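Students often ask why inverse folding is considered easier than folding. One informal answer: many sequences map to the same fold, so there is more than one right answer. In these notes we will look at a single instance of the problem. The structure comes first.
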């Protein structure tokens, strides 16, 4: 088998993976970047709106404390507060660093990096490049990788001496020596040949899980691989019940259902209306947000030009609130002809301005739906977009409970609590990608000897099994049934009976998946690849469903029809998933959420905290602010 030795292997070449790899290489570690898709085609490329960072360029009142508060509010106080603190403090430096590496952000009139409004952010905060921010972020990070390779060529005569990319290469197992990580096992998509990475530290940066749902903004590579690899290696996943359904995905035509319509449309003035023409979001402002959002259309409209004296329009509530409101309008029979609601920017901005600010959206609707958004409204509805849950990590270093295993970006959990604010992912990737790369480098420095690779034969046999069976299940059918089950029974609104039913279906699908057969050879065989990915999607879906059944409250990206309120007692409880090394059993345990540090909790008003905290925690607050 093809074999390579590295200090750090980064799995994933999105924003988190590239930033982690750059850091590990800058700290002198021989680093491999392994990615399942083409280099440059990570999910991060699709990010449209921007990266949230309290630089205060548009509103000087913004600072890390306001960003921290917004992030905690958005996550309904379930966030790992240390992560939210580091994120809010370090995001501006990470954006300026990108600029120094060549990123060309949109500018304010006085030449600073421009920042736009987004749901849940008190001030304009998203550094952006039109609606193509993710593309610029990836371009810049890739350019930085190339710059480091050029340096290595000069120094060592080999551009790949310290950092090398393995594209279209899928990792199927993490390898261990006793308890510690010792490498990763993968196959080349094109040839199906196997490849082994011998490395004491692995950084998971594999993104999300959306392909377990039928309506999703996520693309084919989001099959929860990193989540499952971590579980199978003995790490824990937290907050898996919290899935973000973005309020605005395309609903028509069916072939493009789920594709994202960026929140920037609303940030730049777009409004949501039902079939009666009503701006229905004014009817859905929850009590916890009542004092922060406009109650009349006039005030909401004034806010775009005068934010100091007006409250923001409710179209810019956090995503979970807007998604539930759209769902309720459609259910009440006030939806658009194709089962969504109307998102209108055409009556709000001049055509030239729409094309300048939202070029991708204009192009996307024209090409895919034959709709000109400068002339008519879009039809939109909720789509599975992002998972808040992921690998439980140490906030400062990104390390998991397995020695040598690190995680950053969407595959990690905790930072966003029960609901992520738009724009907080791109900044999360940069802040925690850098920290995980540094954490992995420091871990390698502290090792007395390199761990040995074991488990190769098992990994090989597991990967080959679907090709060696004949007459088994069709992986596409198992996948489709899983997607429908997750969408219909563990979707945006959940009930105990439905989630239990989903768990029964998942048990049966797990048995069927063990018997999937893929016709053809190892050479570029998507049926075989899907059969391998199914293990991951089923494991992750089971975690989501088990945690969703246990959490008897509604909070952020977890709405229980049978437990509609948010409970302070539940906020203190995190649900932690673990699995057997063969994936046969998933367990979920409760863990107490540590109380917030005194200097951070005192950034909030008591009256606000009363909505979220237990009496005991409020007593701690009183002691902290004294
Ligand atoms: P990704 O960028 O998805 O990278 C994952 C990498 O892992 C890929 O290279 C993939 O090939 C690789 N990989 C996966 N499995 C394997 C495996 N088994 N073996 C090897 N490699 C593997 N967030 C914002 O903050 N602002 C926005 O404006 C915004 N807009 C968005 C728009 C869309 C349409 C979508 C879908 C998301 C948006 N998000 C936005 C969310 C954000 O883009 C993602 O959360 C983020 O990019 C995830 O980055 P990542 O580095 O964790 O993973």
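Output (designed amino acids):
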């Amino acid at each position: 088998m093809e074999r390579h030795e590295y200090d750090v292997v980064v799995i994933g070449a999105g924003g988190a993976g590239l930033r982690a790899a750059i850091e590990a290489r800058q700290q002198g570690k021989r680093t491999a970047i392994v990615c399942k898709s083409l280099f440059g085609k990570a999910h991060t490329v699709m990010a449209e709106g921007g990266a949230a960072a309290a630089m205060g360029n548009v509103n000087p009142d913004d600072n890390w404390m306001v960003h921290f508060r917004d992030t905690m509010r958005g996550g309904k106080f379930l966030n790992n507060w240390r992560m939210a603190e580091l994120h809010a403090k370090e995001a501006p430096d990470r954006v300026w660093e990108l600029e120094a590496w060549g990123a060309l952000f949109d500018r304010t009139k006085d030449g600073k990096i421009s920042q736009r409004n987004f749901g849940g952010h008190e001030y304009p905060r998203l550094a952006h490049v039109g609606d193509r921010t993710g593309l610029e972020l990836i371009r810049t990070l890739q350019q930085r990788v190339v710059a480091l390779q050029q340096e290595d060529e000069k120094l060592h005569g080999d551009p790949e001496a310290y950092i090398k990319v393995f594209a279209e290469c899928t990792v199927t197992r993490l390898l261990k020596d006793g308890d510690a990580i010792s490498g990763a096992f993968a196959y080349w998509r094109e040839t199906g040949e196997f490849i082994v990475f011998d490395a004491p530290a692995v950084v998971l940066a594999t993104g999300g899980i959306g392909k377990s749902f039928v309506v999703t903004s996520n693309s084919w590579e989001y099959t929860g691989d990193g989540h499952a690899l971590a579980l199978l290696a003995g790490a824990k996943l937290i907050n898996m019940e919290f899935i973000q359904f973005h309020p605005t995905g395309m609903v028509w035509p069916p072939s493009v259902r789920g594709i994202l319509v960026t929140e920037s449309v609303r940030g730049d003035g777009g409004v949501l209306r039902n079939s009666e023409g009503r701006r229905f979001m004014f009817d859905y402002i929850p009590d916890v947000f009542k004092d922060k959002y406009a109650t009349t259309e006039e005030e909401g409209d004034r806010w775009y030009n005068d934010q100091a004296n007006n409250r923001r329009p409710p179209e810019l509530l956090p995503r979970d609130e807007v998604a539930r409101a759209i769902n309720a309008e459609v259910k009440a029979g006030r939806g658009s002809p194709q089962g969504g609601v109307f998102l209108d920017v055409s009556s709000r901005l001049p055509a030239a301005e729409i094309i300048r600010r939202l070029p991708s959206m204009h192009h996307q609707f024209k090409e895919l739906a034959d709709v000109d958004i400068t002339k008519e409204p879009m039809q939109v509805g909720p789509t599975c977009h992002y998972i808040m849950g992921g690998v439980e990590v140490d906030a400062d270093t990104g390390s998991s409970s397995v020695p040598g295993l690190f995680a950053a970006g969407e595959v990690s959990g905790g930072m966003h609590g029960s609901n992520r604010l738009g724009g907080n992912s791109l900044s999360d990737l940069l802040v925690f990608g850098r920290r995980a790369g540094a954490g992995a480098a420091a871990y390698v420095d502290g090792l007395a000897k390199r761990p040995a690779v074991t488990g190769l034969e098992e990994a090989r046999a597991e990967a080959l099994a679907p090709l060696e069976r004949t007459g088994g299940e069709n992986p596409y059918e198992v996948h489709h049934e899983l997607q429908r089950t997750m969408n219909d029974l563990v979707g945006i609104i959940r009930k105990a009976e439905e989630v239990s039913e989903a768990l029964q279906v998942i048990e049966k699908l797990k048995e069927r998946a063990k018997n999937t057969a893929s016709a053809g050879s190892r050479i570029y065989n998507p049926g075989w690849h899907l059969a391998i990915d199914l293990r991951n999607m089923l494991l992750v879906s089971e975690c989501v469903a088990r945690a969703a059944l246990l959490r008897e409250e509604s909070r952020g990206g977890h709405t229980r029809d049978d437990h509609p309120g948010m409970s302070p007692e539940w906020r203190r409880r995190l649900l932690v998933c673990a699995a057997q090394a063969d994936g046969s059993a998933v367990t979920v345990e409760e863990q107490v959420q540590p109380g917030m540090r005194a200097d951070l909790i005192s950034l909030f008003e008591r009256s606000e905290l009363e909505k979220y905290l237990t009496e005991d925690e409020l007593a701690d607050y009183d002691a902290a602010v004294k």
